[in-house]
Design goal:
about 40% helix, disordered C terminus, 4-stranded mixed beta sheet, Rossmann fold, alpha/beta, 22 helices
């Protein structure tokens, strides 16, 4: 008679049930783990044996029997050391050293050689999956409890050592379940506030619109004009996370191993270096893993020195910027990762950076051509708001007066987002930037005069169909900031100001 304990692992971004089956047969000693385990999973034999011995139980080597551990389903590759605890408990139960009922219990955790329990990745999606599987008790490492404690509907027990867990299961020293806690969103902490940034009012207004509608933004300007500073300050005006969003991004960062203590309560802000590879940005690997664009989900992906990224890296952004998700296909599987980001790109007008400023541009024509070709037409079309930056006068930098604070701007952004949530409550989208053609006709229809204005502007600016629709989306966001039910001419005119000027990109 074999013992079966319920555990799980993360596949993509979701928890999958794994049944840990342990069977003992008489014969020469052998400890076998089957079910497509990777190297770390196979090495559980040594970790489990040492942890059992150091927890004052009889280790497998002391008995002449064959131990077979099956991780089902057998055709799913198993990764990591998170099956150590269920393997150890299954052996103790099967060797009659421990008696307990595994029904309704979910076990996850890595064992150290001395029997202590180490944290593992992906606890949040595993906790959600355990509850959905019908389990009522979740046993996880102590360090992983803060992120799992947000999930209700299942009792969570923190485990510090294998011995403490066995004492609980036998009733010798019960562990008190962890109290569930409420999610409290917090504004993104940054030392950069719009109040402290002098000048660049046009860019500030553009960022407010971008934050309100979750639109993609690009800065063009000479070095030192405040592009990076404004991008960093953008985080301070973003609306707080909802509970659903917090669970989603916490799951992503838990799986990636980039999560600190507890749940993520602020929107992510990722700023990869321009030498980043396309796999690191989009995701990939032998077994597909999320990249920077997924780690920035529901937050900001800031790409400084945009044209300095490899052209292939830039071009891989085409589908994610449009679909707000990315599908990574490899021989061992295909994964779909969310990528609902706000892209913020910053670039100089030329390689030397002085084009259009008072300083002399030293770039050769071929260098200018090569530089401009790094940003293709499809990428330009997918960015909603283009902000041209110019140097700030020194006198303005010394002025005591400054603009609005990030707190005031964030309040307007939150009101605009609330309008959008109500508007799209019966759809699968939540912000203006996500509208498709069907939603544009329903929620962003234009009056006759506004339609004529846009048609004239589209011909004069030679807008593509995609850029045409993006102008309407931006205009809808501007109208939301003014609490206007309809899109007016002034909203369209302002939205058209944020389309790129061809001379700055050639």
């Amino acid at each position: 008679m074999s013992s079966t304990l319920v555990s799980g692992q993360v596949v993509g971004l979701k928890g999958v049930r794994i049944d840990v089956e342990i069977d003992l047969l008489p014969g020469l000693h052998r400890f076998t783990i089957v079910g497509l385990p990777d190297k770390a999973t196979e090495e559980a034999r040594e970790r489990v044996s040492a942890a059992i011995k150091n927890s004052n139980f009889r280790p497998p080597q002391k008995k002449n029997h064959r131990i077979t551990v099956n991780l089902a389903p057998a055709d799913l590759p198993k990764e990591g050391a998170l099956f150590d605890i269920p393997i150890a408990l299954g052996y103790l139960r099967e060797s009659e050293q421990l008696k307990f009922d595994p029904q309704g219990k979910f076990f996850v955790g890595e064992l150290a050689l001395d029997g202590t329990v180490r944290p593992v990745r992906g606890i949040l999606p595993l906790a959600i999956a355990a509850r959905d599987f019908g389990c009522t008790e979740l046993f996880i490492p102590k360090e992983n409890v803060p992120e799992a404690s947000l999930i209700d509907g299942i009792s969570i027990f923190e485990v510090s050592t294998l011995r403490a867990l066995t004492d609980h299961l036998t009733g010798t020293a019960p562990i008190t379940p962890t109290a569930h806690r409420k999610f409290v969103p917090t504004p993104h902490e940054t030392r950069h506030d719009f109040h402290d940034i002098k000048g660049q009012e046009f860019a500030k207004r553009g960022l407010e619109i971008a934050a309100a509608g979750n639109h993609h933004v690009a800065f063009i300007g000479p070095p030192g004009t405040g592009k990076t500073l404004l991008a960093r300050a953008l985080a301070s005006v973003l609306p707080p996370l909802s509970f659903k969003e917090a669970l989603e991004i916490t799951s992503i960062h838990s799986i990636a191993g980039s999560l600190g203590q507890g749940v993520m309560s602020t929107r992510p802000y990722r700023s990869p270096h321009h030498t980043t590879s396309y796999v690191a940005l989009i995701g990939g690997g032998t077994i597909p893993k999320p990249g920077e664009i997924t780690l920035a989900h529901k937050g900001v992906l800031f790409l400084d020195e945009f044209p300095e990224f490899e052209r292939r890296v830039i071009e891989t952004l085409r589908e994610p910027l449009e679909e707000r998700s990315v599908t990574v296909s490899r021989a061992k599987g295909s994964m779909n990762f969310p990528a609902d980001i706000m892209l913020v790109a910053a670039m100089n007008p030329c390689p030397c950076g002085n084009r259009g400023s008072q300083k002399e541009c030293v770039c050769a024509p071929r260098d200018l051509l090569r530089y401009s070709r790094k940003i293709s037409g499809p990428i330009i079309d997918r960015i909603d708001i283009w902000l041209t930056m110019s140097p700030v006068d020194y006198k303005k930098l010394e002025e005591k007066s400054s603009g609005e604070s990030s707190t005031l701007i964030r309040k307007r952004v939150e009101k605009a987002r609330l309008l959008q949530q109500k508007r799209f409550s019966k759809t699968t989208i939540s912000t203006n930037s996500q509208m498709g053609i069907k939603e544009l006709k329903t929620f962003a229809s234009l009056g006759e005069d506004e339609q004529q204005l846009l048609e004239v502007a589209a011909k004069k600016l030679d807008l593509s169909a995609r850029a045409y629709h993006r102008v309407i989306k931006v205009a809808r966001t501007i109208a939301d900031l003014e609490n206007s039910k309809t899109i007016k001419k002034e909203h369209l005119l302002e939205a058209l100001r944020y389309r790129p000027h061809l001379e700055t990109l050639e």
